[in-house]
Amino acid sequence: MATSSSAVEEDASQSKLVADRYLKREQLGEGTYGMVFKAIDTKTGKTVAIKKIRLGNYKEGVNFTALREIKLLKEIKDPNIIELIDAFPHKGNLHLVFEFMESDLEAVIRDKNIVLSPADIKSYIQMTLKGLAYCHKKWILHRDMKPNNLLIASDGQLKLADFGLARIFGSPDRKFTHQVFARWYRAPELLFGTKQYGPGVDVWAAGCIFAELLLRRPFLQGSSDIDQLGKIFAAFGTPKPTQWPEMVYFPDYVEFQYFPAPSLRSLFPMASDDALDLLSKMFTYDPKARISSQQALEHRFFSSVPPPTKPALLPRPPPKGETLNERPLDLNLQEGPFVLSPLRKMRRVTVNHVGFGGDALNAGRGSNNNENDKEARGGGESGLTGLVPMSIDLEAMFGSTTNLRPKLNSVDRSHLKRKLHMDPEFE
Ligand SMILES: Nc1ncnc2c1ncn2[C@@H]1O[C@H](COP(=O)(O)OP(=O)(O)OP(=O)(O)O)[C@@H](O)[C@H]1O
């Protein structure tokens, strides 16, 4: 996304120059480590994203190890890893400058106008695994893989963002509202509190992202670490010590009621046999037996038909910051004219998607209640429509699994707030 030199000059008069090089533009958002701003790199004319990391949280400042690791990150060059262009301290904050990315995988998954074909899903998950394999080869773990950390460039390339930051700046604090969602991608060994983990944690998370691409909603949405484990065990069966001998020695190990594994096919009815085989290997409990990112790339899923879609041809949401005005007018998205005569009937009909194909008509819901609307649109939490068949709801299938999963159906309010862009404090 290059900017002409005249545009740079014009901008220079309006915006603030940071570190004598970057013209600061609007704020893009705030994440675990601090604010992110859009900026123009006057040296290259390119648009960049600057992550401003609050050093106040790191009492001794960034130590030498951290600086050495940041230097290492700058040397990572791979088409599926976001490029760290520059790093510098400014006014007590550390600034990390990254290439600017138009979108992210979370936006793709949530965009109801996007239909993802099996070839598209294959392409997105292949790019994810390629980025992971590159870093794992260099012994760098991500540790915080989730769809909004998988950014998408204007040429369709998916790039892993925030690589290595968890190691440098410490594991993100799960107290932050925006971090709660990362739990859904956490491997069972992390949930059991082990401090000795490896690249398998990223492979597990990639498996969750693969599942989310297939289902178009987060796969296992735990409301606490224990609930997350319960949901994992309801999906894949409670692990037996013979299956995963180290499990019982983990610091936070708790014994769960035995629950047999349902068939993977019942969870992902539309996935190919190859996709299911790869998923089962990514979701192997014992991290030592779990498939590696490189082995996953070599799995027959990627060589069987259909071939993965070329990145440039992948369906993508409109770039960030693009307003509806810039898109073709869609009358379905607009409010129609008001009715001036008294209403005879205040009734609205919405369609509720239940499981796959089990649509039920749901009449008379209030139109101003976001949560009701979301629920009515199907899936509760994610509010996704049945663009692709939804998976079977585990509880609906297996009846009472409440011992395993105490809050299976509870809607995560903070997630809703985030998805609806509401203030986390809002009640
Ligand atoms: N390289 C980038 N290009 C464009 N936008 C970016 C880039 N990096 C981050 N952003 C945007 O800035 C915002 C904050 O990003 P950040 O990565 O700090 O947190 P997050 O991904 O929202 O949450 P978390 O910290 O939990 O991962 C998000 O909207 C993100 O899409």
Automatic annotation (TrEMBL):
Pfam families: Pkinase. Its EC number is 2.7.11.22, 2.7.11.23. Keywords: ATP-binding, Kinase, Nucleotide-binding, Phosphoprotein, Serine/threonine-protein kinase, Transferase. GO terms for biological process: positive regulation of transcription by RNA polymerase II. It catalyses: [DNA-directed RNA polymerase] + ATP = phospho-[DNA-directed RNA polymerase] + ADP + H(+); L-threonyl-[protein] + ATP = O-phospho-L-threonyl-[protein] + ADP + H(+); L-seryl-[protein] + ATP = O-phospho-L-seryl-[protein] + ADP + H(+). The keyword Protein transport does not apply. The active site is at 144 (proton acceptor). The keyword Kinase applies. Residues 304-327, 358-384 are annotated as: Disordered. GO terms for cellular component: cytoplasm; transcription factor TFIIK complex. One of its GO terms (molecular function) is RNA polymerase II CTD heptapeptide repeat kinase activity. ATP binds at residues 28-36, 51-52. Residues 22-302 form the Protein kinase domain. SUPFAM superfamilies: Protein kinase-like (PK-like). It comes from the Eukaryota. Residues 305-320 have a biased composition (Pro residues). It is an enzyme of class 2 (transferase). Belongs to the protein kinase superfamily. CMGC Ser/Thr protein kinase family. CDC2/CDKX subfamily. This is Cyclin-dependent kinase D-1.
